[in-house]
Write a structure and sequence with these properties.
This protein is an alpha/beta fold. It contains twelve helices and eleven strands. The radius of gyration is 19 Å and the shape is globular. It starts with a helix and ends in a 5-residue tail after the last helix. The mean pLDDT is about 90.
Length: about 325
């Protein structure tokens, strides 16, 4: 089996993809990998099936990301995606089936779907893996690439506050800051700044939030979602805010989307693994941060997921010997 280094050295025209509904780690690692490929003299096309959210458009090179790539490629690199369907329409299996695929990711639910898989669930972000890859390839980190990678680390650790924040994440961030990335500016843009329309959506969701059985949740019908700036991605911050509820062990946000779909985002305290619930529903993620999208209607999805979360917490109690 070829190594990741062999694959990229042998390639000339590389298609680099990240998952649909991209977050800061997906966009940051995508842009950084593109810069690394170009530094090696490769032709690199960067693609994501959804447009770049507004809060990440300040990153260098973000305007070069396309939604429907064209052309011929001799290598595909998948970043921050636990399976092929998560890449959305940016990955055309009919066209790319015979092209070698390199899978770089940090999700524990990754299905190891590629010819070469570099999956490290101990890493707080895929951006850290891309930084390691640059080192292995002998490519230096420019201030622009550093900004993209630091964005990914900041986003996936929620400003170095999540349980997956470890010494390696802090050391990687220090290195990127020394390379020229502006931590205060990046943290403000990706964690704090959001359009006023999204602020109002937060208010509507929080006014209807509920707390039962150590689970806090909120639901956003489609009409409310449409009132927000569609170019923003502030809902990931909303579920993180809900997860800060003192009495809750699990937080869930149910967001109705077009086409009768419901997007579900889950967060949990350390020791409660929600990734299994997400994976059983066709999604994936991390023990304390996971999600999936399923067919609605909204109320039925809410009932189903809450039932699974209650069963999860009951199982955690029995495992601790507190019941049964």
């Amino acid at each position: 089996m070829p190594t990741p280094e062999q694959l990229i050295h042998d390639a000339r025209r590389i298609l680099i993809l990240c998952h649909a509904s991209p977050d800061g780690d997906a966009i940051g690692s995508l842009l950084a990998m593109g810069a690394i490929a170009q530094a090696l003299g490769k032709s690199a096309t960067l693609a994501c099936s959804d447009s770049v959210p507004k809060e990440y458009r300040f990153l260098p090179g973000s305007r070069e990301i396309v939604q429907r790539p064209t052309g011929e490629f001799d290598l595909v690199i998948s970043l921050d995606s636990s399976d092929l369907p998560r890449l959305g329409q940016a990955y055309d299996p009919a066209k790319l089936a015979g092209v070698p695929l390199l899978n770089i990711d940090h999700h524990i639910t990754n299905l190891l779907f590629a010819a070469a898989n570099w999956v490290d669930p101990s890493s707080a972000s895929t951006s850290q893996l891309v930084l390691q890859f640059a080192d292995r390839l002998g490519v230096g980190i420019t201030p622009e690439t550093a900004a993209c990678l630091l964005c990914g680390i900041v986003m996936d650790t929620r400003g170095f506050s999540t349980p997956n924040t470890d010494l390696a994440a802090l050391q990687a961030a220090e290195r990127l800051i020394l390379a020229g990335a502006n931590l205060p500016d990046i943290a403000r843009r990706v964690l704090m700044q959001r359009p006023f329309g999204m602020v109002r959506v937060w208010g509507q969701a929080l006014s209807q939030a509920r707390l039962e059985d150590s689970i806090v949740w909120a639901s956003l019908p489609l009409d409310q979602v449409k009132r927000a700036d569609p170019s923003g991605n502030g809902l990931s911050g909303l579920v993180a805010f809900l997860a800060g509820t003192e009495e809750a062990k699990v937080a869930a946000l149910f967001t109705e989307r077009t086409g009768g779909r419901v997007e579900v985002s889950l967060r949990s305290v350390a020791g409660v693994d929600v990734s299994g619930v997400a994976m059983a529903m066709g999604g994936g993620g991390h023990p304390q941060a996971a999600g999936f999208t399923v067919a609605g209607p909204l109320a039925e999805v809410e009932d189903t997921v809450l039932e699974r979360l209650r069963a999860l917490l009951q199982g955690e109690k029995r495992a601790d010997g507190r019941e049964g």
